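Appendix B. Extra example for self-study. Work through it before the problem class; the solution is given directly after the inputs so you can check yourself.
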Amino acid sequence: MSLVVQKFGGTSVGDINRLQAVAERVVSQKNKWDQMVVVVSAMGGETDRLIDMAGVLSQNPQKREMDLLLTSGERISSSLLSIAINSLGFPSISLTGGQAGIMTDGEHLRARVRTIRPDRILKELDSGRIVVAAGFQGVDEFNEETTLGRGGSDLTAVALAAALKADLCEIYTDVDGVYTADPRIVEKAVCLKEISFDEMMEMAVLGAKVLQPRAVDLAAKYKLPLIVRSSFGEGEGTLIKMEDDFLEAPAVSGVNCDKKQSKLTVLNVPDEPGIASKLFGKLAEHSIMIDMIVQNVGEKGLADISITVNRDFAEDAESIIDGLKSEFGKIEIIRNDEIAKVSVVGIGMKSQAGVAARVFSALSGSDINILMISTSEISISVIIDTKYSENAVKLLHKEFIE
Amino acid sequence: MSLVVQKFGGTSVGDINRLQAVAERVVSQKNKWDQMVVVVSAMGGETDRLIDMAGVLSQNPQKREMDLLLTSGERISSSLLSIAINSLGFPSISLTGGQAGIMTDGEHLRARVRTIRPDRILKELDSGRIVVAAGFQGVDEFNEETTLGRGGSDLTAVALAAALKADLCEIYTDVDGVYTADPRIVEKAVCLKEISFDEMMEMAVLGAKVLQPRAVDLAAKYKLPLIVRSSFGEGEGTLIKMEDDFLEAPAVSGVNCDKKQSKLTVLNVPDEPGIASKLFGKLAEHSIMIDMIVQNVGEKGLADISITVNRDFAEDAESIIDGLKSEFGKIEIIRNDEIAKVSVVGIGMKSQAGVAARVFSALSGSDINILMISTSEISISVIIDTKYSENAVKLLHKEFIE
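Solution. C-alpha cells for the complete assembly:
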C-alpha cells in the first residue's frame, strides 16, 4: 500500500477557484497512490480577517479564544475541499485536527504536537476515502482547541506522514521549490533538485520561508522524504532527504539573506561570572530569541557584548537590557536596525576546507565590511549593513554556485 | 442563584459593531443575574456565504461536510463575543456545541438534541464566567459535528435553559416581540405583552418567524418562561408562559398569514381503502410535509383530494403524484401556487363559541372566497387567493383585536 500526505498552503487555496484546482490536482494523482491524505491551510487572507476582527474587539484577546476562532479557518477550507473532491467522483471526508488525532499540549497559539492518534484517519483511508485534514490545529487532553503557530500546517502534514508511515510528504506552495538564492535578487539562482535535511533546516532557520523549521526537524527525525513543489506549475520541486543518500555534495547549496535582524551592542559590561547569564536569563524570561552572540573582553575588566535578534523583538530587548542599568553600572546600549544576515549553507562544507576564507575574500573584494560572524557545521553567516546585502548574496552565489 | 440564558440571532451580531453592542448589553445585565449563558448565531450573512461557496464546488455537497463547514459560523461569532465580553472586564469563555454538551443524533443538517451534558458549562459558570455557547450545533455520539436546522440557535438556547434549570430564557431578535399581526400589513397591530405556549406554537408553525417551533415546544414541556425581545431597542418584549397563568384570554391573540403555500388537487382518485394511504405514504417517503388535507367523495366512487404544502415542495409533490398515474387510473392534478393561508390564533377560542362563524362572515362580507379550511383547538386557518391575503389579515385583525 502506497501512502502520500500532501499539504496545500493558503495561497494554493486562495479562493474558491483555486480550491477547485487543488481538488482536481489531488484526484489526478489518485492513480499513483493507494491512499492519500491532504492537509490544508485556511483560505488565503481568512486567518488575517479573523485576527483583524478580534483586534477590533480587544487589545489583548484571550489566547484560548483566539485558537477557537482561528481553527475555523482550516475547518472551512478542509470541508470545502472535501466537498470539491467528492463532487469530482472520489469519496472523501474532511477531519478536524481533533478528529485527525492531532494531540497537543495546552499552549494556546503555539502548541506542540505530543502524539498522533491515527485510528480515525486509518479507518477512513481503509474505507477508500481521500482524507482531508485541517492543518495548523489540534486538541489538548481536555478537548480544548489549539493551534500550532505560523506555518503550523507544514507540521501537521509531516506529523501525520510520520505517524502514518507515509512513503512521501509533499508540500505544495507558491514557489517551485528550494532555490540556491532568492531568484528576485540573483538572476542565475536555480531550483535545487535535492537538498539534505540539515541544509534545509539551516536554511529554514536562516529565513528561507519555504518550510517551517519544526516540520523539517520532525521529518528528519523520522527520515521522511519531503518534497517542496509548486501547486500552480508542474515542476518536480525539491526533494529533501537524508544526508547519507548524497554521494558527493557541493560545498555550498544555497545563499540566504535575512533582513529582519537587529543588532544590539552592550558596552562596558562588568566581566564577572554570572553577569552574562543574568543578561541572557532576563531576555529568555521575556521569550526573546537571540540569534548571534559575540563577546569581547576589553580593558579594565569591562566587556562588550553584541547580540542579534529578530527586528520584531528589538525594541523589547533594548528596554529589558535598559532595565538592568542599575545593576550593571554604566553600561551603554547601541541598537542597529540597518543590518542583514547573509548565509551560505551546504553539507559539503564538512569535508571541504577554506569555505570561510572564500566567503571573506569574496565580500572584502567588494569592500563589504563584516560586523559579526557565526558558523555551524554546515553554514557560515555574516552580519553586514543592509545596503550591501543584495550585492553580497550575488557575490556569494557567483563564488560558490554559478 | 439566578440564571438566565440569552440568545442573540444573526442580525443582532450582523457585524463587528453590533457584536460589540451585544457584549455591552450582556454585561450591563450582569448585576441582575448571578449566572449568564449567552447563545449566539453566526454573524449575519456568514452562513449564506459558506453555503454559496459549497454550492460553487458541488451541486450536492455531503450533508456531513456541510455540517462541519456551517458550524464554523457560530464558532467564529461565539469566540469573538467572548473576546469582546472579556475586553469589557467580565470573565467569559466560549464553548462549541460539543464543549457545551449539546448531544444530538447523527442526522446531519437537521439533527435532534438527544441530551445535554452540562458539566462543563456548570463548571465555567461556577468559576464566575459568562459562558458564550455556539448556537445551532452539537455533536453526535461519534464526536461528529451536527447542526439543528434553520432557527437551531433558538433550540440551543431553550435546551440549555431547560438543562440548567434557568429562571428565564430570553430570545433577542430584530423585532420587538410577538405582534397581533404583521405590522407591515396591519397598521394597528400591537406587540403582545404575553402569550401562551400553545398560541405561540400555533403561530410559529403557522408562519410567524419569531421563534422556531421546536424551541417553543421544548420550552412548554419544561414550563420555561421565554421572552422574545429586540436586541436593538429597550422594549419589554413578549413573555411566553403557561396557559394556566392567564386569568381570562381574548378569543384571538393574533392573525397570521403564510404566503408560501401551494395547493394540489388530485381529481378522480378511486375511493377504495388503501388508496389515500398510498398517496400520502409516497409523499412522506420523499419527506414532503403536508399541511392541510381535504377529501370529497363525489359520484361513481371517485374522490377529489386537495392538499397544501410549502411552495418549495410543490413541484416535487406534483411529480411524485404524477408518478402514481399508472396505478391510480385517470387521476388529474391541478396545482395552484397563488394561494395564502390566513389564520387566527387564541386560547380564548376554547371557551368562546362562534369564532369560526365570525371569521367566515368577516371574509365573505368582503367577497373573499374560502378555498379550504382547517381548525385546531385554538386556531382557525383558511386558504384563500393570494391577492386577498393582506385584506383578509386586516379584516380579521379589525374583527377580533382592534
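Self-check: Chain A has two domains: 3-174, 255-400. If your reasoning did not lead you there, revisit section 3.
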